[in-house]
Amino acid sequence: MIKYIRDPIHGYIGITDVERRIIDTWPVQRLRGIKQLSIASLVYPGGEHTRFSHSLGAMHVAGQIADSLKKSVEISEDEWQLVRLASLLHDIGHGPFSHSYEELIVQKLGINHEQMGARIVKESELADALKESGYRPDEIIELAFGKRTGGKTYLHQITASQVDADKLDFLVRDSYYTGVEYGRIDINRLIQAMDVCGEDIAIDLKALYALEAFMIARYEMFLAVYYHHAVRAAEILLHKAMDHADELIGLTSFASVEDFLKMDDGYVATKMRELDPTTCKEPEKRRRAEKAKEIMRKLDNRELLKVAYQRDVHIKDAYVARLLGDKNVRHQKEEEIAKLAGVDSDEVVVDVPTLDSIPYYPREIDPMEIPVFTTNSGGKKELVQLSRYSRLINVLKGYVDIIRVYTSPENRTKVERAASEVFKTLPFSAQINM
Predict the structure, then answer these.
(1) Do 133 and 159 sit in the same domain of this protein?
(2) Which of 5, 77, 86, 427 is deepest in the core (most CB within 10 A)?
(3) Is residue 233 classed exposed, middle or buried when 0-12, 13-18 and 19+ CB atoms within 10 A define those classes?
(4) Number of domains forming the structure of the chain
């Protein structure tokens, strides 16, 4: 380590000469202008931390995991450096307002932040900085955004698995900055308990309590922060504004990686606030400019949408699964509710936890996919089923999903009645409570 950075979560984060060179490139520095939690600070004023600080934290945790695994497998200095660089760059492809923009770019261009990240590593100054430091951009891309790397699956799992460096950092970081206590988990115990069984990272059953705390934290942070009703109300408005302003300010029509890298939260927010509908000659463009500008005014004044209806449902139900995952079905329900309520269809939004604009939701983690092991009397590690040893994990498998219907404050009562009527056709097996 040649330098140390003070971090409120991990204390002092050491960085190597190679890391300092990569950190000082524009694609990484740009992450200072992108908030980790988009506009969740409208609800949690402390949640102003950035993708930059999270990326440093994920890099630090990746190094700790690699160090922990060295007790049973050989990890060279080059491999250790590789996994740290991959974790540092894992969020490099995020656009302005992170996941709110992701929904737009997936919809318009069919690419996500990981695919964009791979392009940035290959096509920006990062490629030259990596090559000059002795690393191939392709090997970083494979570790940060690919499925696996060579024969050492566990190296890839440090950066992408059910309990990886990314998740271990964002849970404690998001919890700390929002002031929500649920994410304060003992990540050091989890890291210490990690080992390699075969080619996979597994967690010692002795650390079961820490693993259960991690699972609970993930679920509670989803409910309290990532899918908080007011956070989602703000995110929905922001996405609508960006959708309306897309063609006007070139959100998804960037010609090159360099053009993409010009965009961060402040740039896009300012561009949308400065839209002047009177300069638009085409009626449709004028309408979109007016809509985007008005939404930004509402966000600036914290005039958010309101929940008119909420329903908790079992995810196992086939009808509900289709409803949650299918954009056309959601839009059909929005139109049904709007027609019944006598309001414009733009005034109704059906929101579900599977959208790209929701960063972390419980279904991303399958407790059955987290390998755990015990050590027998002969000192040999044996993989065991987590569900056999944890009742809590079995309970978490049966979590619920939430359907919400949002509208403007003045239409709340009408939309609530209409949504109750439309959604009463959900199968009884899908109902938990109203």
Answers:
(1) yes
(2) 86
(3) buried
(4) 2
